[in-house]
Amino acid sequence: MAKYKRALLKLSGESLMGSQNYGIDENMLLLYAEQIKEIAGMGIKLGIVIGGGNIFRGLTGAKKGFDRINGDYMGMLATVINSLALQSALEKLGQKTRVLTSVKMEPIGELYSKRKTNEALENNEIVIFSGGTGNPFFTTDTASSLRAVEMNADVLLKGTRVDGVYSADPEKEPNASRFDDLSFEEVISKELKVMDLTAFAMCKENNMEIIVFDMNKSGNLKKVILGEKIGTLIRK
Q1: Cβ(222)–Cβ(39) under 8 Å?
Q2: Residues in contact with 86: Cβ distance below 8 Å, sequence separation at least 6, in sequence order
Q3: Residue 136 contacts by C-beta under 8 Å, 6 or more apart in sequence?
C-alpha cells in the first residue's frame, strides 16, 4: 500500500539536461516519464512543477545584464517548454496529463485554478503546473510549495540528481555527510540549502513534509511513494 496518496513532485530543469550542457536529454525525459506513469497507475494523485534552468534562469540572466523582471518572465516560459516536453513524453506512454499555466497562455495550456486541478486529478490525469507562480522574484521552489498546499498534497517530493540532503554540496565536498531525517528547525539552524526560504517557510507553516531523493535512479519515485526510507525526510 502506498504511504502517500496525493503528492507534488518538484523536478529541476537542470536534471533534464542529463549529460548535456543545455536543453532536454530525451533519455532523461523518458526515465522521468516512465517513473511518473508507474505511480499514476497505482492511483496516486500527482501534481508536478518543473524548473527551467536547462533553458534559461532569470537570476542568471540578471547577472548578465538582463532586466530582472523580464529575465524572470523568460524563466517562466522555459518552465512551460519543459512542461510541454514532459506532457508529450507521458502521453506517448498513454498517460493522460493536463498542463496548467500560471498566466493566460491558451491554447498552450489552461489557466491554473484549484477547481481545474481537482477536476483533472479526479479524472486520473497528472497535472503539470507551469509558469512558476506567475510573478517575478519567486522561484519554482516557491511555486511547488504553493501548489502542494493548494492541492492538499500529503507530501512534497523534490526529485534531484543527489540522494538526499547533505551537510555540504556532495558534488564539491566528497566528505559531506547525508541526513536521513531532519526537522524544519534543523534545516534552518544548519543553513542547509533544501529550497529557497520563501518556499521552505510555506512548507513549515503548513506542515508539508518534504522528501529530497535521487530521481535519476529508476524506481526511486515508486519507493518513496510506498514509504521506503530513501532520500531525506524533512518534517516537524
Answers
A1: yes
A2: 11, 29, 32, 33, 36, 48, 50, 97, 128
A3: 58, 68, 69, 72, 73
Overall pTM > 0.90 = yes
What grid cell was written down for 132? Answer: 512558476
Three-state SS for 17-73 is HCCCCCCCCHHHHHHHHHHHHHHHCCCCEEEEEECCCCCCCHHHHHHCCCCHHHHHH
CA neighbours closer than 13 Å in the CB half-sphere of residue 54: 25
**pLDDT tens figures, 54-87:** 998 766 766 777 788 998 999 999 999 999 999 9
Q: Which three cell numbers stand for residue 91?
A: 502521453
Do 51 and 82 form a contact (C-beta atoms < 8 A)? yes
Instruction: Judge whether 97 and 91 are in contact, CB under 8 Å.
Output: yes
10's enclosing H/E stretch is strand 6-11
The candidate with the shortest Cα–Cα distance to 130, out of 142, 117, 143, is 143
Domains plus CATH for the chain? 6-235 (3.40.1160.10)
Which amino acid type is present at position 101?
Answer: T
Contact (Cβ atoms closer than 8 angstroms) between residue 74 and residue 169? no
Query: Partners of 48 in the beta sheet?
Result: 9, 128
Q: Take residue 69 and report the three cell numbers written for it.
A: 523582471
195 with 208: CB under 8 angstroms?
no
What are 178's strand-pairing partners? Answer: 166
